[in-house]
Each structure stands twice: as C-alpha cells, then as structure tokens.
C-alpha cells in the first residue's frame, strides 16, 4: 500500500542491519541499500534519545548527493540503563557483563530514525521498556556462546532464545526492540508522501 504513495520516490536505506532490511521488505517497500561507515561518537553530555537522535542524524549527514526524489533513511538503537548507554559489545566477555547488568531489572531500548530529502530532515524516536527476569550465569553464557550478541545494542536480540526465556514484560513497540519502530516509519513515510 505504502509503495503506491511512494511510487515517485526512491527510498535509500542506509543500514547494513539484516533486521532493518527485512523490516523494509516486510513493509512491502521498494528500496535500495547504501551504507557509509562513520565513527559512531557522540558528545558526552547527551542522554537517552538525544544520543540515538544525534547518531541517526550523523549517519545521514555523510550523504550529500541526494537526488530531488530520494528519501534517505538512517537509524540508530541504544539500550539505556542506569543513566548509561549500552551499545554493541566488543567481545563475548563484554556481552556477558552487559546482559548480567540487565538481569532482574528494567531498561529502555531507544531507536531513532532520520528521514532526509534534499529539502528537509525529520527525526522520530521510540522508547520501549524491557524487563528481564533474574537470569542465571549459565543462561547468559549459553546465549552469548550460542548466538551472535556482538552486533546488537545491549548484547541481545529480543527475537532470539534470550528473549524467549528471559524477558518477562515489555512496554512499547516489540519491533522497536528489534531495531526499528516500524509504525513510526510507516507514519512518517505517509506524511512525506502525502504532504
């Protein structure tokens, strides 16, 4: 349906994430993929959605040759816990430490999405509260050693084994925790396509 409204536009997804790419396919969108590497560094004073907003805009800022009918989409997800941002772990040891800190507690998953055209930039974000049960050391180690937590903010994927057995409740969008608030992407693209 959305494709009908966007038939005059070219959607450019600037993400190497297989999950985000699958979301765009599942939304029945025609899109191209362009990825440019950046250093995901942000000012120390930023907090929560300020961080993900900043990084999503930063990812968009390196695309300077957009055509008039291009809609560039970038995104960033962080886990916010105890006033600290958890990004992607650099090792299994760090992943175990991250998940251990999330065990028996509630954290926030924040995803920001930036939409950029030659004329305007929009930024939207969504915050989902996720509560883990008390996880045993064996459960955490099994997950980290069996799955691929190193490409995920907070070192876990809600759609994987750890989500099945460990998450006791969520408040907000499930898909946001997977990496994209699909309802906001749909709403924003509809707004751009039907001004």
Give a written overview of the molecule.
Strands 1, 2, 3, 4, 5, 6 and 7 form a 7-stranded mixed beta sheet that branches. The model has no long low-confidence stretch (mean pLDDT 95). Strand 1, helix 2 (18-26) and strand 2 form a beta-alpha-beta unit. This protein has helices at 2-5, 18-26, 49-61, 92-102, 137-146, 161-166, 174-178, 182-193; strands at residues 10-13, 31-33, 70-81, 84-86, 106-116, 121-132, 167-171. With 195 residues, it is α/β, with parallel strands linked by helices. Helices cover 36% and strands 26% of the residues. The radius of gyration is 17 Å and the shape is elongated. Helix 4 crosses helix 5 (137-146).
* Strand content range: 25-35%
Oligomeric state of shown chains: single chain
- Rg, nearest Å: 17 Å
- Kindly report the average pLDDT value: 95
N→C terminal distance: 17 Å
Using the alpha-carbon principal axes, give the shape. Answer: elongated
Indicate the structural class.
Answer: alpha/beta
Helix content: 25-40%
Q: N-to-C SSE series?
A: HEHEHEEHEEHHEHH
Biggest beta sheet attributes: 7 strands, mixed
Low-confidence stretches: none
Number of helices: 8
Q: Got a strand count? A: 7
């Amino acid at each position: 349906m959305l494709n009908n409204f966007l038939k005059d536009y070219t959607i450019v997804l600037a993400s190497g994430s297989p999950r985000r790419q699958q979301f765009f396919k599942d939304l029945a969108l025609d899109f191209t993929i362009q990825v440019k590497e950046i250093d995901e560094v942000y000012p120390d004073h930023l907090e929560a959605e300020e961080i993900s907003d900043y990084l999503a805009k930063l990812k968009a800022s390196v695309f300077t040759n957009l055509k008039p009918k291009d809609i560039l989409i970038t995104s960033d997800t962080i886990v916010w816990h105890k006033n600290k941002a958890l990004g992607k772990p650099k090792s299994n040891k760090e992943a175990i430490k991250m998940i251990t800190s999330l065990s028996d507690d509630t954290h926030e998953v924040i995803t920001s999405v930036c939409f950029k055209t030659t004329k305007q930039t929009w930024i939207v974000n969504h915050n989902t509260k996720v509560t883990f049960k008390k996880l045993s050391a064996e459960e955490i180690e099994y997950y980290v050693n069996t799955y691929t937590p190193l490409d995920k903010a907070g070192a876990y994927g809600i759609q994987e084994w750890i989500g099945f057995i460990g998450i006791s409740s969520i408040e907000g969008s499930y898909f946001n925790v997977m990496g994209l608030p699909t309802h906001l992407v749909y709403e924003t693209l509809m707004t751009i396509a039907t001004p």
